[in-house]
Amino acid sequence: MRTERKGHTEEENVLVLQGGGSLGAYECGVYKAIDKLKIKIDVVAGTSIGGINSAIISASKSDNPAKDLEEFWLTLSQTSSSPFLTERMRMVSSSIYSAMWGNSNAFLPLWLRPSFGSFYNSPYLYDISPLKTTLEKFVDYTKLKDPTRPRLIITSTDIQNGKPSIFDSKYDNFTSDHVLSSAGYPFYGISWTKVSNRYLWDGTLLSNTPLREVIDASPIRDKRVIIANLFPNTQEELPHNMMESWHRARDIMHADKTDQTVRMSKIISRYLVMINKMHDILESAPLDDTSKKKLAEIEPEFNKLACQRGAIIKEIVRVERREGDSHYLFEDADFSVTTIKKLIKSGEQDAIKSLENFGKN
């Protein structure tokens, strides 16, 4: 008698990358560790800056995506503060610099345009077309058709209907617009992107950890998942002022919330095992013609449930970015060279420790 779920014999390794502005450099370090540990990634999914990192990982022009991803982040980094500043002073000064002058390789404020007057009637403050130019130096979307490259899934939010818009390299022909559509964060005044007559904002508005979207896109194969969590779930110290309150609220909103998804996948798996057992009992039991006809009638629905759905999370490892003593709301706008290199290094170190036993259980 069959005791396993039908059609669920293969596994895939999934990397999920969150949005978080300049904190995405931490994800670069995480991927460097994955590459160093020679962990094969089958699916990479991301939103916002995580979507941009995902695109480089899946479609890098060279055969060394870890190197290309680090080079991308060093391209975005900029020296805008004195090396003698404290860490907090550096974060503050660098984020203010980004807000006022932008980042020539990522986004530019409208007030630096010659047509300054258009700023007052614009639904956004920053143009991210420079990011498109930078991204295209590192990606070749034809690489997504290479079966040895990871499947790419990127999420965004449809402005007009408030629903998720999911792009999947298995079905979609990617362009940089598909990738940038995930990065238009309205609360920072980042512009939206139009793709196929849809106006799209950042995917973090709906979910900053697109694991559920991966399960929906690949509902059969069981998964071993790595999540780069950029925003701490816990913080023992209470906020001291309004700015720290906003900072903590932001962390809570954007932190990984996939525990419920994992629990539901396990519950569904148990139900499917039970359905399979009951189906096998009915198949082997002596049935009259009426019962056989009824069984045949529900067979298509059984196959849809038991064979075409029900992927479970067999393992999940969260690589958690930790904050120091300084809690600063606009830390995700700090593109200083020192911070970017520090984030890459800490992401790699944390991932090496977290992933040393990945896939071995």
UniProtKB/TrEMBL annotation:
The keyword Glycoprotein does not apply. The keyword Magnesium does not apply. GO terms for biological process: lipid catabolic process. One of its GO terms (molecular function) is hydrolase activity. InterPro entries: Acyl_Trfase/lysoPLipase, DUF3734, NTE, PNPLA_dom. Keywords: Hydrolase, Lipid degradation, Lipid metabolism, Membrane, Transmembrane. Residues 15-215 form the PNPLA domain. It comes from the Archaea. This is Putative transmembrane protein. It comes from Nitrosotalea devaniterrae.
